[in-house]
Amino acid sequence: MDKEKLKSYLYEISDFELLIKKSNYDTLFFDKTLKKQLASYLPVTQLSDIEFIPDFQWFINHIAVTENIIFAKHMRFIETPFHNHNFIELSYVYSGKITQIVNGQTIFLKQGCFLITNSKVKHSIYKTEEEDILINCLIGKDVLNYNFLSLLNKNQPIYNFFLSFLYDDNPNQFFVFDAANHSDIKDLFELMLCEYYSNTPSNNQIIKCYLAALLIKLFSIQKNQYTNHYAISSNTLDSLSVLNYISSHLKTVTLKDTAHYFGYNADYFCRIFKDTHNHKFTEVVKACRLEKAVCLLSSTNITIKDIASIVGYTNTSFFYKVFYDCFGVTPATFRKTLSICKFETDTYL
Fold first, then answer.
1. Residue 216 and residue 179 in contact, taking contact as beta carbons nearer than 8 Å
2. Distances (CA, A) of 303 to 156, 307, 309, 320, 322
3. How far apart are CA 124 and CA 233, in angstroms?
4. Rounded distance, CA 144 to CA 150, Å?
5. How many CB atoms lie within 10 A of CB 103?
6. What is the pLDDT along the chain (349 residues), one digit of tens a residue?
7. HSE-CB for 237 with a 13 A CA cutoff
8. Which residues contact 295 (CB under 8 A, 6 or more apart)?
9. In angstroms, how far is CA 197 from the centroid of its own chain?
10. Distance CA 97, CA 127 (A)
């Protein structure tokens, strides 16, 4: 799908929106019939077990967001009641304007603005009109594995934002970004949408790369920020320290040495590490090594053989296998793809 077709698709009034417009409903889930119509319109699990969706929060809790990133155009002509998610939501105002109540604050979003909300953020959306196009990107926990996190910059707030979602009991932070004057960010999001609706076999990996680049750019232009500060649990603070240690000792890191550094018995450290991260120590080490490899592939001209050695792989062939198993492409193809993406983005500037 190209950008012109995308624009036509986004402005098109869907059958469900037409139903809402003709019926003059004020709020989603006001009527049993409307609930059933919505149930057939959006991806919801467990529909066969019920006659109709009991309430809006139930619906939100059963949207099927798994290993893939889902994009959904916000329904116009009606108000969306207060709710929160079991996933992260990145919303983009493609056109018009949107007003939301987010954790008790009134947020006005104009064209080009982004809002990213963590899973416990309570928010509602005022009634929208035909020109108000809001695109929601739904990001589930299965997407946020170490392979995806490895594409992000640990020194930016977005990294801790995702860690909060994965490990905190009450992740309720949100950010607003005004990217109206940043055409590169707008182009990245639209390229991601075009890729999503093209539905090609490899588009999921490409979308994840686009999304990581978009998030890094958003947080790099962060100026006006609405945020509820949260306290990261002690386990998360420990995990950050451990990840930093692993990243600093990629060539020689072992579980025994890491446990000793943090003052633990190796067996006990292995157990609490698994409980905290839901991954084995070796899996996290692999992810950190691949993170470093991705960074070097995208920002340097170092040979792939030397990169493999730098990140702790003495066997280049084995490095190729590990990289391919993770990303679905070889290191050489990955580097080439990033170069193409950068070229495509630069052409829109």
1. no
2. 28, 6, 10, 13, 17
3. 28
4. 10
5. 17
6. 888 999 999 999 988 788 778 776 665 554 555 555 655 555 544 444 434 444 445 445 555 554 568 898 998 888 888 888 888 999 999 999 999 988 888 888 999 999 999 988 888 898 899 999 999 998 888 788 777 777 777 777 788 788 888 877 667 788 898 899 899 999 999 999 998 888 776 678 888 888 988 988 888 886 444 343 333 333 333 566 787 788 889 998 999 998 887 777 788 788 888 877 667 889 889 888 988 888 888 888 899 999 999 999 999 999 999 998 888 889 998 888 766 554 444 443 3
7. 5
8. none
9. 17
10. 11
Radius of gyration of the chain (CA): 22
Predicted TM-score (pTM) above 0.70: no
How far out from the chain centre does Cα 167 lie? Answer: 16
- What domains are there in the chain, each with its CATH number? 3-220 (2.60.120.280), 234-347 (1.10.10.60)
**Residue the block writes with tokens 């070229």:** 343
